[in-house]
Design goal:
Four copies of one chain form a homotetramer.
Chain A: H1 3-18, H2 37-56, H3 67-71, H4 95-112, H5 119-148, E1 172-175, E2 178-182, E3 198-202, E4 205-208, H6 214-222, H7 234-243, E5 251-254, E6 257-262, E7 265-268, H8 280-289, H9 297-303, E8 312-319, E9 345-350, E10 365-367, E11 376-377
Parallel strand pairs in A: 8-11
Antiparallel strand pairs in A: 1-4, 2-3, 5-6, 6-7, 8-9, 9-10
Helix pairs in contact in A: 1-5, 2-4, 2-5
């Protein structure tokens, strides 16, 4: 597929995700971490405008001078921006304005992509594609949050299935101790945080071939998992008490039955599906209760080919840290990954919301340990 | 005008206020005090549905069971409700849904109003009209906040003029000491907080015929009004420091010139217009700086016929307290006024946003002393 | 009594209040409103040093340059100061240092008071005496808070009795409507907030001769007073829910029996004693439950001679506002009262902690409506 | 040395640290992380009473039933406790009471230690010794915080020297890539978090033989280190802005010269001494500015024998995580380390406040990345 086609396809997919929305759904930001869908649509567009068109497309006219202030996410290099908690306070630019902004930038990009693109620029362009794909996942999880926390519980769409069933009976896979290679070594795109490829020494370990199910998690709840501090980190326990956590996000006890909100609306829990929307604290507590633990990201990467993975982001025991030889790029692009490498945990795998072609065995996702609006899940090791 | 016509006219006016809005403008709640316009439209409708139709219109079918939860404001008697800070997190019911809700209730109300209405019910109905008019004022001030705090500063409408000029040169009017009667004694509607009519003793005082202008307020700013604690209450001074207040709300120093945002957009300050969007703390500090004071609400009411008033709500020195013999109604309607009678200041007059026929000399408006998104102003006394 | 004797007697009384304390009790500040006893001892000393000695005693040498920073309470005119919430973080100056500071200033003051004192200075001096007496009341209530919130509940002293019994059966006293004079008009000291004496018009009212007892308050609790929003202001109800208030401060339900901590330690509630340590919100809710109300400060002052008052500060319905013609003094002394005249309620009477000779019928005490560590009580009116 | 002697020596050392204090210094808690010295003295005593005497010494009588509530730190197994932020609100038990508590428990312990001690109990006892030593370090850093944040800046003692000079010129030491063994394997005491000893693979790296000095750090400040976001983690940069950080803790710019508070009082910065009281965020930013990085804890442990270490705790790049095979003990003792293994960074080495015999190459200290009241320092690697 040529660059223009690839660009169009990725850009169109973001808009397709928003098709089932009402205009109002594009606007709200119920919590800081959940951005309004129109912000995602604008921000990904701003990325191409700011990093590709403005510095490289000679005759390009900026769509609106104010949009840099509105759609910059966290790039300090690029100047001031709407503070993150205020995104949901902005009724303008309207959804219509944002779609016009997209069309305007797309038209300029498609023209620009027919010119000769240097290798360096190509790299940046591919980063822009991957950036938009990351926001496609966020779009879907943010939409789920917006609708799933509305007292009317409107379904998003019947077409999206969240299911993630066991392929087979779960079994423990044994990996021998030894030196293994970790990190990306293919010839295609990877993020800077997947480099350098380097050696690690792993002790012998066992890891489950399958994810933990809703049924198993329900046993944890019924066994008092949320009321026994012994299973929890001190910070996790504080989090449980302060927020009165009693079940995964989107679970509701209705007339004595556990139900959960999915993109299709509210329904009874399916015991065989993989549990999702749990924090790292909960994943850790569940593993403690089982007398097991979470795998490290290195164990996960080494075992990955033997695992059934791909519909849930799997919390690992690893903190998000630079690999040996990690180097951040100069300028704004260097703010992409490195500056988040503290106080976050690595997740491996991919979720039902991850765009096609946007997952690989070396991919390192990361979130703070208390967050659970992503499609997170649990795999056990020991 | 008959009841049906009166009902229709008031209801239509709320919708007219919203005509210039984009759908997105109906949804956001940038601060707790500012409710989304669609919430106002729904809440005023809910008032008629809950207090008139459900208890009295035999065959009335509730539009949606969930709307009570969404559109109850603060009536504890009526059950649980969306917490106030969450109103801006709700993308649903959509703006369209809310207009359908209005049409549905209006149709039922118009039918119901053609039946025989008891005197007691008539009283409640008139309360509902006045309630909707109060929300019309809030609609406009909330819309101003939403647009005026957007970095793009979109104008609301060229048709709305905020101007409030001096009628004549300001002069001091002297009122003799003596016993005066305060409170409503007409035969039409008034709120419970305007009763009982009772006597007060006033010492001789002087009060300005006119409101303080932007030009006079600018002198206060230039003379260091916001940097000299001597003019302020201790709590006012804390508020200035904590919020780094340097001018009235909506004022911006652009290229060395003071501008302000009005419903028509951003433009230079008009020195002759009455200053507006100031807190009680600022009104008090300005008066201290002038060596004067604010009138009490009783002084205001006694002098009102000799004053030029009506385009700004005027902060008074009076705390919002019950009049002698004040009695709250039983049930939910009793929650209307009495439960707010602590820590608020009385404002008298009316503003450019007050609906026609919704002001009178005995009207008692009230807000917390730090709030300034209403069209508030200053009148001096001594 | 001559000035020197009066000075010595007042100063000694502050130290006598602290006699039963351990050194550690002088240091802590468990909540913002409660200052460490050593701070009170230092601050009252600083008042005499700063306002009397430094400007007037020619050869006076400041005890320590740093103490102005440590012991200034809220006088902006006098410069920077330790922020109020930090008073309990200061282990130095030590208790010993503070007593040395007192001795040093006392010695200088006693010498100074033997010189000729101008009338103006005399006025300031008398203010200093009254200021120290106000802090004597705070010393005792702050000590009670410090000991009464310690898990060991140490008694303060067997000598202090908190009792406040009914003199006689409570009866309702009727006061006729008419014009009355309010405010101080004696020839001795009064605070600026008791002036000017002025006329008010009161409607006919009835007021109880006695305060509400623990027994009556217990009936309110048993009747669900703390669980029925109807009795409360909206802000009061929020306060109840947020702080899970279920009884007056210092009350504890131990093995099914209501006990309370007094300066003598923990013991069973005495049903006949006047209830104390309640907020304005609770006083108002109790009155609502009774179908009555609190008196205004003007009603209280007019009825005072016929009331049994003097062991509890009585919440009134009045907001703390300036009297007609109120004028604050120039300079730091002008910061004494006026700048607090917003968002507070007036209390009338006197408490068991009020120093002798520090109460009068025109005295206006004031606190925020949620506070209850003072010896507050309830008198009903209608 | 026999057990009794060892016990007495360790216990006496805690009291020796407190010798220079005034009674008041034992009481205050200026920030949550800094406990009152009397709390440390009581808590370490409570540890021996609760875990050794009560379960094992048949005739032991508890000193006071209430002390468990007062002196439990974070052991959920052992029941309720004073919340951590309230420790500074307790004036009782008095300092005297706490010393009596110590004497009482010491006497019982010394008697008990002359009986036959099982191996299991011996292990617990040695943990108690190490626990008290950890609190000795905290005692000193907490005292420094209490005195160093007092506006009078009282010195602690002339006897304690904080100096930590370069042994020699700093040079880079190269360590070859390969598999290394990490973790404790001696026959004496170690904490559970130092186990299991296991293999890691390290890439070749260089590490400085010496710590970063005040002089080098001053260059970072002068070069705009605190004003350039590029050097910082996103969370570190937020921390700098929110807290207006401009230099290490205890540094003050006085008349244009950088001074710092040490245990000996305030004096000019010594450029040759190792910088201390910096957060992980600052250590990371400094390293970025130098174009280097911090070592991992594994790199540190492998290189340790060639490093000049021991007067500063050295921030590493490693997150505090369990070693392979980590197992927490059952019961309260199992709460010692494991439950803190999230969101903290490992520090290696030892500081001037670390008790003798309480440091070793495998020791893992840990703190949250923003904290800086410990004697922390920086070593560079690449």
């Amino acid at each position: 597929m040529n660059l223009v086609e690839q660009y169009k396809q990725i850009r169109k997919h973001s808009e397709k995700i928003c098709e089932p929305l009402e205009t109002e759904d594009y606007v709200v930001q119920p919590v800081e971490d959940v951005s309004p869908p129109k912000w995602h649509l604008g921000h990904t567009t701003w990325f191409f405008e700011t990093f590709i068109l403005i510095p490289n497309a000679a005759e390009y006219q900026v769509f609106s001078e104010n949009y840099n202030y509105v759609f910059n996410s966290y790039y300090e290099t690029i100047g001031n921006r709407v503070i993150r908690t205020d995104r949901g306070n902005l009724s303008r630019p309207s959804v219509n304005d944002v779609y016009q902004y997209r069309a305007y930038v797309d038209e300029a990009m498609e023209r620009f992509l027919q010119t000769t693109i240097s290798d360096e620029l190509l790299e940046l362009l591919i980063l822009g594609f991957n950036h938009e794909q990351q926001h496609q996942e966020l779009l879907l999880t943010d939409i789920k949050y917006i609708l799933g926390n509305n007292p009317l519980f409107p379904p998003y769409s019947a077409d999206w299935k969240e299911e993630s069933y066991l392929a087979t009976e779960a079994k423990l896979i044994t990996i021998n101790e030894g030196v293994y290679e970790i990190g990306y070594d293919g010839g295609d795109f990877c993020f800077d945080n997947e480099l350098n490829r380097h050696k690690v020494y792993l002790q012998e370990f066992e890891v489950s071939s399958e994810l933990v199910t809703n049924g198993e998690y329900l046993d944890f709840i019924k066994d008092g998992g949320y009321t026994n501090f012994n299973f929890w980190h001190a910070e996790g326990w504080d989090w449980v008490l302060r927020n009165q956590i009693k079940a995964p996000m989107y679970w509701h006890l209705i007339d004595g039955e556990w139900c959960n909100y999915t993109l299709n609306g509210i329904s009874l829990i399916d015991a065989k599906q993989s549990v999702t929307h749990i924090s790292y604290y909960e994943a850790y507590a569940f593993a403690s209760w089982k007398g097991m633990r979470l795998p490290t990201e290195f164990e996960w990467e080494v075992a990955a080919k033997q695992l059934n993975w791909g519909k849930r982001w799997e919390w690992t025991e690893s903190a998000y840290l630079p690999y040996p030889g990690f180097n951040k790029a100069p300028g704004a692009i260097g703010e992409y990954n490195g500056k988040f490498m503290v106080n976050q945990k690595v997740l491996r795998g991919a979720s039902v919301a991850t765009p096609e072609n946007h997952s690989r065995i070396t991919y390192r996702n990361f979130f703070h340990p208390h967050l659970r609006w992503q499609f997170t899940g649990i795999r056990l090791a020991k």
